[in-house]
Design a protein that fits this description.
The chain is an alpha+beta fold. The chain has a domain of 106 residues: Ribosomal protein S6/Translation elongation factor EF1B (Alpha-Beta Plaits), CATH 3.30.70.60. 33% of the residues lie in helices and 27% in strands. It has a 4-stranded antiparallel β-sheet with strand order 1-2-4-3. The N and C termini lie far apart (48 Å). InterPro entries: PilO (IPR007445), Transl_elong_EF1B/ribsomal_bS6 (IPR014717). This is Pilus assembly protein PilO.
Length: 153
């Protein structure tokens, strides 16, 4: 009986880990904030986020976002490492590097140059498991608020 309880506990822990990696509800605002934070921690500037159409699947749906960041080469690798460390599955599936616009190449201050700046377009892919109804990709859930003039989170 103890072996069965131990196995049930391990299975439950494994299922909980799967729920964190591939949640059953859309967490787009939180996910985009985590990705933006990963870029800022690497010292990059996020210059664009564009969602791709959702790829529907039998067990889960695939969500892709094209993120454009600007910064130095080594900072881009730090960003990808930060994304790989996020608490849910987020995989880079396409990566394009181009020289950053001239404004990004300007010196920090007179006489101080910085490494050449690059614009990286990264397509990040994540997954949402079926199970709980999800909002369409182009909608945001809004909580009704009484007309009190108070701003609520």
């Amino acid at each position: 009986m103890t072996k069965l309880r131990d196995e049930a506990a391990r299975t439950g822990a494994g299922l909980e880990a799967m729920r964190r990696l591939v949640p059953t509800e859309r967490e787009v605002p939180a996910l985009l904030e985590e990705i933006s934070t990963a870029a800022r921690r690497a010292g990059l500037e996020v210059s664009g986020v564009v969602p791709d159409p959702v790829l529907k699947g039998d067990e889960f749906d695939t969500y892709r976002y094209k993120i454009t960041v600007v910064g130095g080469y080594h900072r881009l690798s730090t960003f990808l490492a930060n994304v790989g460390s996020l608490p849910r599955i987020v995989a880079p599936v396409a990566f394009t590097l181009t020289p950053a616009p001239d404004a990004a190449q300007a010196p920090v201050k007179p006489g101080v140059t910085r490494p050449p700046q690059l614009a990286a377009s990264v397509t990040l892919q994540t997954y949402v498991a079926h199970g709980i109804a999800t909002a369409p990709a182009d909608t945001v859930a809004v909580r009704p608020v009484a007309n009190t003039g108070e701003i609520l989170p």
